[in-house]
Amino acid sequence: MRTFVRPFTAVSLAVCAFALLPICCAAFAQEAQVVDGMAAIVNGDVITFSQVRQLSAPREKLLRSQFTGQELENKLQEVRKLALKDLIDRRLIIQAFKKESYQIPDHIVDQRVHDIIRENFGGDRNTFIKTLEAQSYSLGEFKEKELERIMVQAMRSHNVKTNMIASPTKIEDYYRKHRDEFTSKEEIKLRMIMVSGQKDTGNAQAQKALAEEVLGKLASGGEFEQVAQIYSEDSTKDNGGDWGWIGRNTLAAPLEKFAFNMPVGRISSIIDYAGNYYIIKVEDKRGGTTKSLAEARADIEKKLIQDEAQQIQERWVAGLRKKAYIRTF
Question: Do domains 2-159 and 184-286 have the same CATH topology?
């Protein structure tokens, strides 16, 4: 029998984020109230519908708050299929772990439970046990779940090897094709005055004259905020025409073109759009800059390595699936 120890240092942080998943999911699973049965058989091991619902429950809860009717049903079926696939893959990995006669020392699992109690329950073991009991979990069941998680993470670390180096050519090619990923969002801090061209009198000329009068007051040194509070006729009037920070595709196209091309601090001329008259001022700008290749290199290399690891893992698990007997119901 071999003891599979080497990957645990790297794995311990990886499993941390998932440590309390059984506790959290059990509460959601209780809401489903589904009659249990076999969802799949993996080389003789049974995966139940309750296990699928337990894994998919947090995502299902979110979907129920976002969708209704047939669209909701379609989304639920999709997320349950993904949960079943994940459970099948986990079972295959655990079976591969056991086939290699690896073992996880008991003290590794005990330490993991100790860390969970310390990090999530302030070191209070009694509160931890009561939480398990409230979710119908025994300490033994919880340890078994943690043991399986460690097995899966350890096997992934053991079987998914990468070169850990991305070639300069690949990095440069990625940068060329994905420059938008390294360009910060362009935003402006905007104030705007709107004078309606369709007042009750229907006198468009009078409204145009009013807009020109407003522009004259601004040109004479009037504070934009104060002038907007007096003359503007849109919803930002009380705030002095303040739109705050906005990105592209917020304003109508003609207004956006003016706003994003104006220098900071300058007041526009009158913009005649859709029967109304607009005067805008850009108070500040930010973003719209692109990182150089040198600045982006480390992030690109990290992403390329992660992508390669994901592809290697998928090929490895696909090989396990190919050799396995899997039946879904």
Answer: no
d(CA 59, CA 32): 13
Residues facing residue 103 across a β-bridge: 3
End-to-end CA distance of the chain: 35
pTM score, two decimals?
Answer: 0.59
Give the CATH class of 2-159: mainly alpha
Average pLDDT, the chain: 87
Rounded-to-integer distance, Cα 103 and Cα 6, Å: 12
Q: What CATH class does 184-286 carry? A: alpha beta
Rounded alpha-carbon distances, angstroms, from residue 189 to 157, 246, 258: 48, 6, 13
For residue 280, is pLDDT > 70? Answer: yes
Domain ranges of the chain: 2-159, 184-286
Position 79 scores a pLDDT of 96
Nearest residue to 178 via CA among 299, 96, 45 = 299
Which residues, in sequence order, are bridge partners of residue 193?
A: 279
- Closest of 240, 236, 239, 269 to residue 255, by C-alpha: 269
**Cα distance between residue 16 and residue 7, in whole Å:** 15
Angle between helices 139-159 and 8-16 (to 10 degrees): 120
